[in-house]
Amino acid sequence: MAGKFERKQFSEINLNDPFFDSLKADYPGTSSSTGFVQWFAAKAADGKRALIFEDDQGVGAFVNLKPNEAEEINLANGIVLPKTARLKITTIKIDKRYRNQRIGEGALGLTLWQWRDLGINEIYVTVFDKHISLILLLEKYGFIHVGNNLNGERVYIKDRRNLDFSDPCKSFPFLSDQVQHAGCLAIDMEYHDTMFASSDLANTLQERVDISVANGLKKVYIGKPYSLAFKVGEPVLVYRKYTGTGGRPGYKSVITTYCVATRIEKIKVNGRAQYSYDQFLRMVGNKSVYNEDELKEKYDTWASLTLIELLYYGYFGAGNNVNWMWLKSNDCWPGTHPMNFRYTRSQFEKILREGKVDVGNVIIN
Question: What percentage of residues in the chain have a pLDDT greater than 90?
Answer without folding.
Answer: 68
